[in-house]
Amino acid sequence: MSDSIGPIFYEPSTDMLWVELRPWPGDDIGDERNIGGEEPEPGLIVHYARDGEPWAWEVEYASRRPDLVSRALAAVRAAQGYSRAA
User: Fold this and answer.
1) How many CA atoms lie within 13 A of 28 on its CB side?
2) I want to staple 21 with a disulfide (CB 3.0 to 4.6 A). Which of 12, 53, 60, 79 is the partner?
């Protein structure tokens, strides 16, 4: 991936934004791609860790979906214990 800032990665060639909500739980770092995800709405894929909790959001065509980008960033803040208001 290109241009990483903490848990956020953007790949310009595919216009995909990857947002990790939390570190991968456990010691099986190499297995995260084997865990499934779901597409609750077009352009958003939520990836789950082995514990069944959301691990990362993948926003497809991110430059055309500021609504999903905003929600992904809010999800990071919430997962890290920050309140909605800054």
Assistant:
1) 8
2) 79
Task: Record the pTM.
Answer: 0.75
Chain centroid offset of residue 41 CA: 14
3 state SS of 63: helix
Task: Give the residue among 45, 60, 54 at the shortest CA–CA distance from 21.
Answer: 54
Phi, psi values for residue 10, rounded to 5°: -125, 130
Single-letter code of the amino acid located at 2 = S
pLDDT tens-digit profile of 30-66?
555 556 789 999 999 999 888 888 889 999 999 999 9
